[in-house]
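In the previous chapter we treated chains in isolation. Here, by contrast, the input contains two separate entities that must be folded as one system, with a combined length of 491 residues.
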Amino acid sequence: MRGVDDDVLLSLEGVSFSYPVSAGLFTRYKIPVASDLSFSLTRGDRLGIVGLNGEGKSTLLRLIAGVIEPDAGEIVRKKNVSIALLALGVGFNPFLTGRDNAILSAVLMGRDQDWAQLQLTKIRSFSELGDAFDRPVRTYSAGMRARLGFSVAFNMEVDVLLIDEVLAVGDANFRAKAALALNQKLGKGQTMVLVSHSSSEIKRVCNRAIWLSKGCIQEVGDPDDVISAYEVFT
Amino acid sequence: MTLKEELRFIDLTARMALRADASTLVLGYVWWVLEPILYVAVFYLVFAVILDSPRADFLSFLIIGKLPFQWFSGGLNSCAMSISGAQALIGNTSIPKSLLVFSKLQQVTYKQVAVFALMAIYLVTQGSQLSLSWLWVLLVALAQYFFTATFAILGAVAVCYARDFARLIQMFTIFMMFTSGIFWDVRVLGPEMQALIFAFNPLAFLLDSYRQVLLYNGAIDVARLMLLIGAFSGLCAILMIFVRRNETRIALRVLSR
């Protein structure tokens, strides 16, 4: 994979992708979810992606993260750039404590065990779980689980953070806290790709936006313009 | 990830999964030894009591065959879904898929350490002498680990391509149970048949080697054992390289279900 220059962290050039589906021994078909996508991401970019359900937004994040590879086109990543999906509760085991799950989740997301141990105080504090941090996760409410997941994932330090609809977690207070933490991260120059159904969130957080429809880029540019076009369509 | 990080990953995820598993059961970790005891009890009831096996040492013979076999069958069956069952994880991370297999295999291996300890305690209570020659078991166990790991990786990847393989793996372990000399002695067969079974079923040779060391104080075929270690560690490495080179293809298989 060749590298890209200067502040361009990654670029997509004519990327197309279809999910292969097997329906029996001899029946196979493909569902196209990304078609001829081209754009680049420079350091400090905050790219928002909008679109209806099933239009390829999450697949695009997986392509950027390198979880899957395009059928056609190329994704060029700058050498040594770290990219991670901010996925809540990755690998959570309901029968383990919040503490154990925090370590497990961080390790599953590619972090070292020692690093995870060092982050525990910060994760416990940010998640506001208190003593429940040492209780099995199966005793948590959905909001508590989401808070723990967000606290672990948000602590991951990566060059490009990929966020898929996970900012609306927990109660109103925690959402405000999560938004503040995100703003602080972005203020420090964090590069981010955000998939969201919330137009206001895209406008508030992002400096660029893409409207994805049937796997194609319908509109790209200033978030206000893209969101306006998207809202007229929907 | 460096090799050290990968080994720590396997160890941590295996220990966490075992802790979680134990917490779901009233008897928790006791099941690590209770389960194999119950298996042996069932086999003993059928073959020694109902079918009236003529062997005086049948229980020891059975234990040394059945308990190591559990490591193989448990490893294969639990690893079968280790990749295809981790859809959420694979969809959100780029975690090397082979680590998922080895994490599952490590869970079974940690349990097996307790089972081997139980086996040794039983043999000592039956009058067997603890001796340095028992250390040969480590070499036999190493060969069994690589043998199991090879089939575990192969099975886990195959299941990603077609879930039907999970059923075949179950059938395969049953086939191996009946052909590896767990409740019958390979050595009562003629030399030609014995050689044939040892050649085509390494597990039969390994179970026999455990018995030679622990039950009969006999010599084991070290050359064949080293050959098995070399062959299956090599196969294991080749399969791991294959998985590493096809990470995204395997991920796609899992995600497109």
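The radius of gyration of chain B is 19 Å. Chain B has one domain: 3-255. Compare these points with the single-chain example from earlier in the chapter.
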